[in-house]
């Protein structure tokens, strides 16, 4: 087959391509760094011709053009699978909503449930075999594109080419239109500021729990980043990676020689991930690197797959938790912050792994905009808050005041253990609250 001839037949402009979008359509922008740029701008220019166009995306890295106009919500509705700060701004504008999910199930949502009238995503340039790589986000894109009635790819020469499993690329035969985009730089996600004393204290508790040869999953945020940096500087060796999100911390560990994957039960020697976002350092490291391997999220986040990898270590953040052991990692009351993502999948899979451990890390307190200091450990979750991890699935909880293992503990034992890692200023009140809820024994420590 003459792939170049087929490419030229399907090559068009962004303005021409978006004419296929009709009022009432479901349009999919893909995921994170794959969101379109030129196509989004062209679709926004058609705003006044359209109404009730429903768009899906997730982990949005920049404000889409379709959301910038003052009356954008009269024409477009944004639906996010996982909220970033940008998604939260779109929701606050009144034109966006969150779509709850366990991230591992997202490909099946597309296979079984969802309508996709038009899909438009950024991809790498076509290779000699006619394939466009999804680059940094295999995620659910193969199933999403397979479901789409019309597929438009926007080529970006700056996207790194990342090797992967089936489900990490699309062939020109399966594409309806090709747009050669503006080749913008790949959107970067900062690694956060310098680690705080609390970050270091938590990391100092977690890192000694990681054995040589462990397989790592890191969530995003200051604490996981700090733990990654400490691992890079530690004496640990022969680590491996199987993660939902690939972040800069893994690059630091790899460059320090800590990651070999030699003891990994599955995909030996390969760092497996569903999507990646970080600094240019990360993108340069991943480009054409055979050590890293993209994979669909129903593989990376599958609880059974995770459980097959020995000594699996999962490290994630939380917003707050209650005295029963329920963990909220996605909302502040009814104000949505992020999403379930893969946290629950990895908490369950890590515990089922031989020698595996799941760590939920957080500071003991948070300071509000008004300067008020509040405990992240609360009697019961704030009304409207989401129980990301049910109490039955939580393993280790870590704050700067200690580490506890909730597995096997009764309600009164849990309350005692959880209060022991709360900030000292809030412990007496938490004990009083536990007594009112009948989860505190008189013989418990005061």
Automatic annotation (TrEMBL):
InterPro entries on file: AcetylCoA_hyd_C (IPR026888), AcetylCoA_hyd_C_sf (IPR038460), ActCoA_hydro (IPR046433), ActCoA_hydro_N (IPR003702), Butryl-CoA_acetate_CoA_Tfrase (IPR023990), NagB/RpiA_transferase-like (IPR037171)
Reaction equations catalysed: butanoate + acetyl-CoA = butanoyl-CoA + acetate
Acetyl-CoA hydrolase/transferase N-terminal domain mapped to chain residues: 3-187
Domain Acetyl-CoA hydrolase/transferase C-terminal residue range list: 278-433
Listed EC numbers: 2.8.3.-
Gene3D superfamilies xrefs: 4-hydroxybutyrate coenzyme like domains, Acetyl-CoA hydrolase/transferase C-terminal domain, Glutaconate Coenzyme A-transferase
Catalytic machinery residues: 244 (5-glutamyl coenzyme a thioester intermediate)
Binding site for CoA: 219-223, 319, 342
PANTHER family: ACETYL-COA HYDROLASE, ACETYL-COA HYDROLASE-RELATED
Annotated family: Belongs to the acetyl-CoA hydrolase/transferase family. Butyryl-CoA CoA-transferase subfamily.
The protein's role, per its UniProt record: Coenzyme A-transferase that converts butyryl-CoA to butyrate.
Protein name as annotated: Butyryl-CoA:acetate CoA-transferase
């Amino acid at each position: 087959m003459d792939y170049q001839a087929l490419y030229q037949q399907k090559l068009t402009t962004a303005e021409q391509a978006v004419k296929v979008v009709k009022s009432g359509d479901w349009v999919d922008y893909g995921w994170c760094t794959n969101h379109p740029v030129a196509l989004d701008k062209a679709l926004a220019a058609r705003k006044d011709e359209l109404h009730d166009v429903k768009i899906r995306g997730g982990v949005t890295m920049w404000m889409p053009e379709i959301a910038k106009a003052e009356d954008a919500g009269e024409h477009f509705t944004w639906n996010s699978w996982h909220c970033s700060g940008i998604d939260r701004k779109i929701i606050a504008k009144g034109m966006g909503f969150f779509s709850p999910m366990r991230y591992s199930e997202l490909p099946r949502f597309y296979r079984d449930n969802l309508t996709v009238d038009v899909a438009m995503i950024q991809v790498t340039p076509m290779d000699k075999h006619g394939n466009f790589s999804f680059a940094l986000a295999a995620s659910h894109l193969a199933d999403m594109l397979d479901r789409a009635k019309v597929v438009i790819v926007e080529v970006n020469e700056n996207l790194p080419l990342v090797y992967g499993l089936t489900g990490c690329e699309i062939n020109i035969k399966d594409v309806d239109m090709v747009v050669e985009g503006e080749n913008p730089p790949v959107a970067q996600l900062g690694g956060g500021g310098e680690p705080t004393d609390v970050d270091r204290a938590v990391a100092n508790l977690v890192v000694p729990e990681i054995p040589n040869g462990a397989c790592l999953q890191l969530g995003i945020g200051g604490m996981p980043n700090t733990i990654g940096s400490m691992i890079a500087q530690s004496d640990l060796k022969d680590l491996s990676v199987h993660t939902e999100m690939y972040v800069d911390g893994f690059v630091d560990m790899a460059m320090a020689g800590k990651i070999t994957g030699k003891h990994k039960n599955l995909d030996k020697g390969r760092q497996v991930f569903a999507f990646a976002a970080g600094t240019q350092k990360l993108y340069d490291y991943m480009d054409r690197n055979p050590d890293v391997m993209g994979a669909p999220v129903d593989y990376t986040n599958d609880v059974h797959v995770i459980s097959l990898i020995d000594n699996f270590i999962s490290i994630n953040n939380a917003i707050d938790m209650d005295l029963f052991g329920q963990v909220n990692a996605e909302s502040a009351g009814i104000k949505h912050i992020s999403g379930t993502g893969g946290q629950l999948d990895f908490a369950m899979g890590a515990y089922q792994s031989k020698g595996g451990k799941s760590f939920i890390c957080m500071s003991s307190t948070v300071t509000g905009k008004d300067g008020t200091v509040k405990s992240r450990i609360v009697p019961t979750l704030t009304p409207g808050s989401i129980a990301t991890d049910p109490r039955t699935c939580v393993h280790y909880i870590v704050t700067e005041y200690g580490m506890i293992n909730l597995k096997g503990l009764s309600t009164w034992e849990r309350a005692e253990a959880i209060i022991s890692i709360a900030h000292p200023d809030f412990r007496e009140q938490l004990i009083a609250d536990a007594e009112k809820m009948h989860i505190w024994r008189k013989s418990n420590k005061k």
